[in-house]
Design a protein that fits this description.
This protein is mainly alpha-helical. It is about 80% helix and about 0% strand. The chain has 2 helices and no strands. The chain is flat.
Length: about 90
Amino acid sequence: MNQHATSHTAHDRPDTEAMKARYRDLSGTVRRRQMIEAGQAAALPFAAYAYGDAMKSSGLLKRSSHWAQLFCIAAAGIVPILLFIRVVW
């Protein structure tokens, strides 16, 4: 006979009401996070549109965005090489 097999009594069972309350709390948290993520996803096209309008109207923003883009491209090409050199040598 298996020593680990025991009969469950009412005292061994977890409190069902406590489990239900925890489930309600956690499912509410998940729903809130999903709503926040959906709102952020819906706001993204509007942010991109506003950025595009600002790029058309501001020469300084256009130049700084261009230089930031060039910096990111250069960093993406140089950083892996520098890391490789540091690891190998």
